[in-house]
Design brief:
Elements (H helix, E strand, L loop, with lengths): L1 E6 L2 H17 L4 E6 L1 H7 L3 E6 L8 H6 L1 H18 L3 E5 L2 H13 L10 E5 L11 H8 L2 E4 L3 H8 L5 E2 L3 H7 L6 H10 L7 E5 L4 H15 L6 E6 L5 H8 L5 E4 L2 H6 L1 E6 L3 H8 L4 E5 L3 H10 L7 H6 L6 E3 L5 H11 L6 H15 L4 H16 L3
Parallel strand pairs: 1-2, 1-4, 2-3, 4-5, 5-6, 6-7, 8-9, 8-11, 9-10, 11-12, 12-13
């Protein structure tokens, strides 16, 4: 079968890669065409064709989206034309709702040569409509043939809105379980390869977009000056120019490691993390963290008007209580962040409690294998739909 997959950011690339592995396990003859990144390229191998890398499409923030509407429009037109020309058996959408919901609508409204052979639309990792833009539920009901969710609390939420979603677990459990355990030998090798000294590491996970780096890294670097006995390491990404990081690292003792976010976090005593999937990844790796987030004033103002959640980090949302401290906008100052970091480091007042909360989190998340279970269900549905 022919699978067209769209992932528009780094986390989507990660989950898309594991989904592709599951699809190829269940359907070894699969043909895959996709928007994604390096992980999806590696997973698809000779079965896949990259249409566009997510680094060309990823835009974050209300104001940033408004400034790039023309560019986004061009990308959408290209994507619609590419889907129509290739005519897959199924369109699989991974998160990225502003773009992907429009592609779902296109598939349902396009005049296909044979209406009975319209591509199915599967949505994997549902838009967070329980947080904001709940009206998107209507679009999910109308334009998505099957919804695949990754949080257990979403089952009942979508059922109340007339959608029977499939829950196979959370794919981050797959990603974490596949990582090799840290040993003294691997830790020493990592330090040598990245020119790090013997001090304990604190990871600075400032995000994967230019705007996230610009707004968050300066204060993260400032926090390092409170902890001379620790070694602060920025987890950089190769699709952003190194000069962007150097602009804020100059004059500091903060080190830079590129494209090794998991490895850096796993070897750390604690981490400062911007909001997003990385907050959950850090918790699943059992590393104490403080969530720190700044954005443009306009984007934060709009978010406060529209978002109806008590928390911004996935850890706290899943547990429905404050497990990790969230320092947002004006609360994210170097001094406040330093105080919170001291509390979660070994020997700190919040350290043991956070590790216990992490154990509860892993229990709530369930077992690994989500990607393979979801892929098997997708192929089962598609097989049933095939004409006899």
């Amino acid at each position: 079968m022919r699978y067209y997959i769209i992932a528009g950011e780094a986390s989507g690339d990660l989950h898309g890669s594991n989904l592709i592995k599951g699809l190829l396990h269940t359907d070894p003859e699969a043909e895959i065409r996709f928007w994604g990144g390096d992980k999806m390229i590696a997973a698809a191998g000779s079965h896949g064709t990259l249409v566009r890398h997510y680094k060309e499409a990823s835009i974050m923030g209300f104001w940033e989206v408004l400034k790039n509407l023309r560019r986004i429009g061009r990308q959408m037109r290209f994507c619609r034309e590419d889907i129509a020309a290739w005519h897959p058996d199924v369109l699989i959408l991974i998160d990225y709702p502003g773009f992907n919901l429009r592609m779902a609508r296109f598939v349902h409204t396009h005049r296909w040569p044979d209406p009975d052979k319209r591509p199915r639309v599967f949505y994997y990792i549902a838009p967070k409509v329980w947080a904001w833009k709940e009206k998107r539920v209507v679009k999910l009901r109308e334009y998505v043939d099957k919804l695949f969710i990754i949080f257990p609390f979403e089952i009942e939420y979508f059922r109340r809105h007339g959608i029977e979603a499939f829950y196979g677990g959370n794919p981050l459990m797959d990603s974490v379980s596949q990582r090799p355990a840290v040993t003294p030998e691997t830790a020493a090798a990592f330090r040598r390869e990245n020119h790090l000294d013997e001090r304990p590491i604190i990871a600075l996970v400032a995000g994967s977009r230019t705007s996230e780096i610009q707004y968050n890294l300066p204060n993260m670097v400032a926090v390092s000056r409170f902890f001379p006995d620790y070694q602060f390491v920025v987890t950089g990404v190769s699709w952003l120019d190194r000069s962007l990081y150097d602009r804020y690292l100059g004059g500091s003792d903060v080190r830079f490691v590129c494209d090794k976010t998991y490895e850096t976090i796993a070897l750390s005593a604690a981490a400062l993390v911007t909001s997003g999937t990385a907050t959950l990844e850090t918790a699943l790796l059992n590393i104490p963290e403080v969530v720190c987030f700044r954005g443009s004033g306009i984007s934060i103002w709009i978010a406060k008007k529209l978002v109806k959640l008590r928390f911004i980090s996935l850890v706290n949302l899943i547990m429905d209580r404050e497990v990790v401290r969230e320092l947002i906008q004006e609360m994210f100052t170097p001094a406040i962040a330093a105080d919170e970091l001291r509390a979660v480091l070994p020997g700190g007042s919040k350290h043991e409690r956070m590790l216990q909360d992490y154990r509860d989190l892993r229990t709530a998340m369930g077992e690994a294998g989500a990607s393979e279970r979801v892929a098997a269900e997708m192929v089962r549905i598609l097989t049933e739909k095939q004409p006899q």
